[in-house]
Automatic annotation (TrEMBL):
Domain Glutaminyl-tRNA synthetase class Ib non-specific RNA-binding, chain residue ranges per copy: 9-124, 127-215
Enzyme Commission number(s) of this protein: 6.1.1.18
Name of this protein: glutamine--tRNA ligase
Residue ranges annotated for the Glutamyl/glutaminyl-tRNA synthetase class Ib anti-codon binding domain, each copy included: 526-626
Cited SUPFAM superfamilies: Nucleotidylyl transferase, Ribosomal protein L25-like
One GO CC term, this protein: aminoacyl-tRNA synthetase multienzyme complex
Gene symbol of the encoding locus: Qars
One Pfam family per UniProt: tRNA_synt_1c_R2
Length: 736
């Protein structure tokens, strides 16, 4: 991008800025934006770049406000040498007495810091040069006394409790990105109404009873923010639900409130107990505890009573139009819309007693919705036992009727839902007001979608039925149970939701952005181990000890204070087949005849002496000699290895679909089932892993050195562990 704008030759300062941008920018989506400012010479210093990187990190929402960004980064600000000279003079004058007393032992960094606070965008080198010049003018050249080192003051060591407190802040459950999400949600509070001030919301309908109802509401809640996460228990939660969970629970948490987990169990034919269990499990896995777990069915009696009241008020009627007749946006008006109240009351009672068959009668509300849909259905007949109420009911309320009234019963302050429910906002307000009950406020936000996948319950079931995936938790899917099984940490999913931001617009994201979040978390959480996917036997003919040596391997090489594990180093080790070649190509740095390599963590270098092949000419074993690494030239590469390993199965995953939008007929004319990637799963049956992982349990995570991040699969058995590759160590450029 830079060469396209500036030509093939880049000056050193531009190159340094570009390098620092690429090295320090966590989220690559802003790379082009920042590079544009660098090549236009609008970001000229590392100080400006640091401010730019901080700005994009703290502004995850798109698009970035260019004017605000430029103000934050000092774009167009010019600091003259005269201004720097004047600022340095003022600061030296302020500290003149201390400078004359301490001379060159005075902390010159303090002077530069004060000048920088006065001239934020001044060049650091220019400030330093000016400070040095003026200090020299004041104090003269350094004397021998000035050259003597100033004795260091002993630092008080923090108590263990203080250290632990700092560690919790840095590495606790709420990471930087999660805090960022909470900050975003606190920011949204400026747009959202305060509890009890529902009437200030645009479009909120105020009735003569509104203020009294809000006063009662505040007396019950104490002004507390209340939200709810209301999933249907007829499928497994997916990545889109993760945003909904983070938004509902996160908004309550960010504003000192509570969040209910309420199951919308109004459709008994598709609901199963396993879905109830899995939903709560996933909510808690993401780090949230519901204030209360409720069900729409808890309120069936109250909802029925209110339905009778709605009929009495002339706002609902029993209708006999068929489902096919009232589908779409312009169905014919119901001929029963104006039937007498008493008649509708009797017919609704007959519906409850089972005197009408399914589809023969519905209870409809008298209103026109924002999308033009007229008289939505409130109750329909279903002769299906309910998992909680049994055979008590043969009529069940719809979402349009149930949702707002359950929110009212639970005194929800902010009913947060995705954008497609915006068309139901008017019916939400209408129904609460028609019954003169407390009316919460519905707020909409954009859905989170992911490319290269499907999340529809119906479509996932078809994938399972045709054998393309094993079940809802197949690691190639983007259900939350599948992501957990594949090894994605819950923190990574929350961080991903934070980066997506609390946007009103629908967000469609690339999977590699989620994978990048996983790498960041796993790099800090997953201890290192060594594994070999395609083993090649290596015999060390001059092994330096009569028995196996114990090698200490750091769990986290960047922080050895987090411990070590022991690995046995024996005369027979196994390396990756791909780490050996008989012939060396240009750029190849690993093991080959005449090209030794180091064995990681051992302190030894091996060199090939003999190549053993089978009858077909395939290399099956290497005989090598080893030498201490401190007595020979440093090799070009160090490779991983295992010795006395555990046999294991490793499952390597790729994208399930070949195209970005498998459901788009213009992209995939044959439908999503025709777009299955035949190479989405490769199983390595005879991989080897070092024995340090023997006590690992399902969902434990490791970084297999040089291979990627892996998680223990629940299919693991004693004597045969199974690992799922979560992500590779580095992003595959072809996927970004």
């Amino acid at each position: 991008q830079a060469r396209g704008a500036l030509g093939p030759a880049l000056d050193k300062s531009t190159g340094t800025l570009l390098y620092n941008t690429a090295a320090r920018l966590r989220d690559p989506k802003h790379l082009g934006f920042l590079v544009g400012y660098i090549v236009r010479r609008e970001i000229l210093t590392d100080l400006q770049l640091s401010a730019a990187l901080e700005y994009v990190r703290s502004h995850p929402q798109e698009p970035l406000d260019a004017a605000d960004f430029e103000r934050a980064c000092g774009v167009g600000v010019c600091v003259t040498p005269e201004q720097i000279e004047e600022a340095v003079e003022a600061v030296i004058s302020k500290h003149r007495a201390e400078l004359l007393a301490e001379r060159y032992h005075f902390n010159m960094g303090l002077l530069m810091g004060e000048v920088r606070s006065r001239l934020q965008w001044a060049d650091g080198k220019t400030i330093k040069n000016e400070v040095d010049l003026q200090v020299l003018h004041l104090l003269g050249p350094k004397t021998e006394a000035d050259l003597e080192k100033k004795p260091k003051a002993a630092k008080a060591r923090p108590a263990p409790a203080e250290k632990q407190k700092v560690a919790v802040v840095e590495t606790g459950e709420v990471g930087m990105e999660t805090r960022s999400l909470l900050e975003q949600l606190r920011g949204e509070a400026l747009k959202f109404h305060k509890p009890g001030e529902n009437y200030k919301t645009e479009g909120y309908v105020v009735t003569p009873n509104t203020m009294a109802l809000l006063k009662q509401h505040l007396a019950i809640t104490g002004g507390q923010v209340r939200t709810r996460f209301p999933p249907e228990p007829n499928g497994i939660l997916h990545i889109g639900h993760a945003k909904a969970i983070n938004f509902n629970f996160g908004y309550a948490k960010a504003n000192g409130g509570v969040c209910f987990l309420r199951y919308d169990d109004t459709n008994p034919e598709k609901e199963e107990e396993k879905y109830f269990t899995a939903i709560r499990e996933m909510v808690e896995w993401l780090g949230y505890q519901p204030y209360a777990v409720t069900h729409a069915s808890d309120y069936f009696d109250q909802l029925y009573t209110w339905a009778l009241e709605l009929i009495r008020r002339g706002q609902a009627y029993v209708c006999h139009q068929k489902v096919e007749e009232i589908k779409g946006h312009n169905p014919p008006p119901s001929p029963w819309r104006d039937r007498p109240v008493e008649e509708s009351l009797l017919l609704f009672e007959d519906m409850r007693k089972g005197k009408f068959g399914e589809g023969e009668a519905t209870l409809r509300m008298k209103l026109v919705m924002e999308d033009g849909k007229m008289d939505p259905v409130a109750y329909r007949v279903k002769f299906i036992p309910h998992h909680r109420t049994g055979d008590k009911w043969c009529i069940y309320p719809t979402y349009d009727y149930t949702h707002c009234l359950c929110d009212s019963i639970e005194h929800i302050t902010h009913s947060l839902c995705t954008k497609e429910f915006q068309a139901r906002r008017s019916s939400y307000f209408w129904l609460c007001n028609a019954l003169d009950v407390y009316c919460p406020v519905q707020w909409e936000y954009g859905r989170l979608n992911l490319l290269y996948t499907v999340v529809s319950k119906r479509k996932i079931i078809r994938l399972v039925e045709m054998g393309a995936v094993r079940d809802w938790d197949d690691p190639r899917l983007f259900t939350l149970t599948a992501l957990r099984r594949r090894g994605f940490p819950s923190e990574a999913i929350n961080n991903f939701c934070a980066r997506v931001g609390v946007t009103v617009a629908q967000a469609t994201m690339e999977p590699h952005l989620l994978e990048a979040c996983a790498r960041e978390v796993l790099n800090e959480q997953a201890p290192r181990a060594m594994a070999v996917l395609e083993p090649l036997k290596v015999t060390i003919t001059n092994f330096p000890a009569p028995k196996a040596l114990e090698v200490l391997v750091p769990n986290f090489p960047a922080d050895e204070s987090r411990g070590f594990h022991k690995v046995l180093f024996q005369p027979t080790v196994y390396i990756e087949e791909t780490d050996f070649r008989e012939e060396v190509d240009k750029g190849y740095k690993r093991l080959a005849p005449g090209q030794p390599v180091g064995l990681r963590h051992t302190g030894y270098i091996i060199a090939v002496q003999n190549i053993i092949k089978d009858a077909s000419g395939r290399v099956i074993e290497l005989e090598v000699t080893c030498t201490k690494s401190d007595v020979v030239e440093k090799p070009k590469a160090f490779i991983h290895w295992v010795s006395e390993p555990l046999a294991c199965e490793v499952r390597l995953y790729e994208r399930l679909f070949l195209h970005k939008n498998p459901e788009d007929p213009s992209e995939v004319p044959g439908g999503f089932l025709s777009d299955i990637n035949p190479d989405s799963l490769r199983v390595v049956h005879n991989a080897l892993v070092d024995s340090s992982v023997v006590s690992a349990r399902p969902f434990d995570k490791f970084q297999f050195e040089r291979l990627g991040y892996f998680s223990v699969d629940p299919d693991s058995e004693e004597g045969k562990m199974v690992f799922n590759r979560t992500v590779m160590l580095k992003e595959d450029p072809s996927k970004s």
